[in-house]
Amino acid sequence: MAKLIFKPVGLLAGLISGLIGKKLFQRIWGAIDEQQPPKPQQRLVPLGKLALALALEGALFRVVKGLAEHGSRRAFSRLTGSWPGESRPRSE
Fold first, then answer.
1. Which of 4, 34, 38, 40 could bridge across to 45 with cysteines, CB 3.0–4.6 Å?
2. 10: which residues sit within 8 A by CB, 6+ positions away?
3. Are 45 and 39 in contact (CB under 8 A)?
4. CA distances from 83 to 49, 65, 67, 90 (A)
5. Does any domain span residue 89?
């Protein structure tokens, strides 16, 4: 039941983390290069610069999303007394 109730909270946390990740990437990229980050659709783009931009963006989005998801689950747990997910990693 907690997982179902948590769904909208998780969705909101995901949207907010996406916005934060985007802003963070823009600030960090601004410190790396004065130009806008290259996009895969652009024809004349240095591959190294594209790879750096994509790796940085992907890593930042994943870290921010993971921290936001875990934080929202902790807050939900404090409010409801129920953890919406697994307590421990599964051993395989």
1. 38
2. 69, 72, 73, 84
3. yes
4. 42, 18, 16, 16
5. no
Please say whether the beta carbons of 21 and 76 come within 8 A: no
Q: Is 2 inside a domain boundary?
A: no
The pTM (predicted TM-score) of the whole model is 0.81
Determine the angle formed by the axes of helices 2-32 and 47-80, rounding to 10 degrees: 150
Q: How far apart are CA 71 and CA 56, in angstroms?
A: 22
Answer whether residue 60 is part of any domain.
yes
Amino acid, res. 87: S
Q: How far apart are the first and last CA of the chain?
A: 26
Instruction: Please give the single-letter amino acid code of residue 41.
Output: Q
Domain assignment present for 65: yes
How far, in Å, CA of 39 to CA of 36, rounded?
A: 9
Domain range for residue 59?
17-37+44-80
